[in-house]
Design goal:
5 strands; alpha/beta; about 180 residues; Cytidine Deaminase, domain 2; elongated; about 45% helix
Length: about 180
Amino acid sequence: MVELYSDAYWMQFALEQAAFAAQQEEIPVGAIIVSQNEIIGAGFNAPICSHDPTAHAEIQAIRTACQNIQNYRLPEDATLYVTLEPCTMCVGALIHARIKRVVFGAFESKAGSLVSARQLLSSGYYNHIFEFSEGCLQEQCSLQLSDFFKMRRSQKKQLKLLKKNLTQSAMVEKR
């Protein structure tokens, strides 16, 4: 059982947001922002369906939180929970929004910008630095992503096979 208001407790809500992304055939990444033990913002990955390359889960959560509090800066105690390590763009947005803390689940070896591919905050060049914790519900977050990509690969194989069969059928009919 997950302890109330623990990092794992809040990460479950981010996983729910990621499931919404998967339902829209987006890469399943979800994020929430918590202040004073209340969710003030939530978002899921939506660049494809929104035709917006900046519509990452973290950006969506920042946007909804800032709209909800009517301020372009987040509250001093705000924590972002996200199922995948943030990319460079999202780290930049989190710096500008003045997030206090970030908790992420799965590591992102290609674009992760906190610990995996880059360590942006270690440069010391920023006017705001936030704390971060890594690997919260890592197994569940990683599994959600890997299951999505397995399903997508399977769909592509089925489509390729279907196209091949249709092509062969068309060739037989021409004879």
